[in-house]
Structures are given as C-alpha cells and as structure tokens.
C-alpha cells in the first residue's frame, strides 16, 4: 500500500520558520558586529582630532584649526620628509600636541646657515614656500639624527618652537601620534592637508 505524501505538519513548519528566523538574526548580528568593528578602526586610526595651537604652521594651519590624525600610517612605515606630524615633545604627556613638518630623517645631518636648511650638506629644496630662517637654534651647528629621530620645523619658520629649540629637540617616532592628514575646521580650509 502506498501512502500519500503529505505536506509538512504545523509543528514542522513552525520549526523550519524558527530556524530561518534564528539564521536571519545571527546574520544581522554578524553584520552589525562587522560595521561596529570597521567604525572603531576608522575612528581609532584615522579619526583622532587634534587642535593646532599657535601660528607656527601658518599658512598651512592657523591657531584653532582642527585636524584628523592618521595613527595607522606610522605603525607600518616611518614619516617621510614633508609630512605634517603630530607629537608630544620628549613624550611629555603634560603638554599639548605639537604639529610640525618633517625636514630631517633618521641618520641625516641637519644644519641651518645663512637662512637655508642643509640636509647632509645639500640645500633642502621644498615645495612649500617659506621665509629664510632667521634663528637657527641648535641647528646652527651640525645636528646628527639618530635612529628613529626626526627634525621638524613649523611652516612659519620665524615664529615656531620646533626641533631648533632644546625644549622640543629631535622627535622620536614613538612620540608621534601620527600624520595630520585632514583639516576638519574651519570650513574654509576643510579638506586634505598638504
């Protein structure tokens, strides 16, 4: 005798429906977890905000400008000449963040004479237009950068406390928060930092 094939019972249908619902909920939870993780990574590595203090980076940055800092970049590679970096001098947690431009790289010599910056004895050619440096500070004599040491200057070379000053000195990579990459405010300068 052949039994007629019957559809799913009510209990079987309800069980299948519940399994589909559980599967959908788990997929939804996974997607939310991925989005939260990506948001955390973006904010932590690229979204740290720092406010520029003073006029030392003028005209690139003005007093009160808010910039975003890329903290991931320097954990992979070191700063390049021309990068605008955010750091605390000597790693001093009791001071504000400084924002300056990298001029000298590890292993190089830096000297400032007759208003010009010399790297390993050659005049530094910069894309950035700056005034001749009036005060050489510690760079009046040859400064030899050690491993992981960077020589930084403000873009407003004659109104900047930077590596020329013993209070700031050479900057160690480990004291850098990261690379300033985007101006958030004010709105007239909103955009990528050069």
From TrEMBL:
Database matches in PROSITE patterns: SPASE_I_2, SPASE_I_3
GO terms, molecular function: signal peptidase activity
Enzyme Commission code: 3.4.21.89
Positions of transmembrane segments: 25-47
NCBIfam families: sigpep_I_bact
Membrane topology: Single-pass type II membrane protein
Subcellular location(s) of the protein: Cell membrane; Membrane
UniProt organism field: Diplocloster modestus
Protein name: Signal peptidase I
Alphabetically ordered keywords of this record: Hydrolase, Membrane, Protease, Transmembrane, Transmembrane helix
One Pfam entry name: Peptidase_S26
Catalytic activity: Cleavage of hydrophobic, N-terminal signal or leader sequences from secreted and periplasmic proteins
Similarity annotation: Belongs to the peptidase S26 family.
Highest taxon above the source species: Bacteria
Peptidase S26 domain span: 26-183
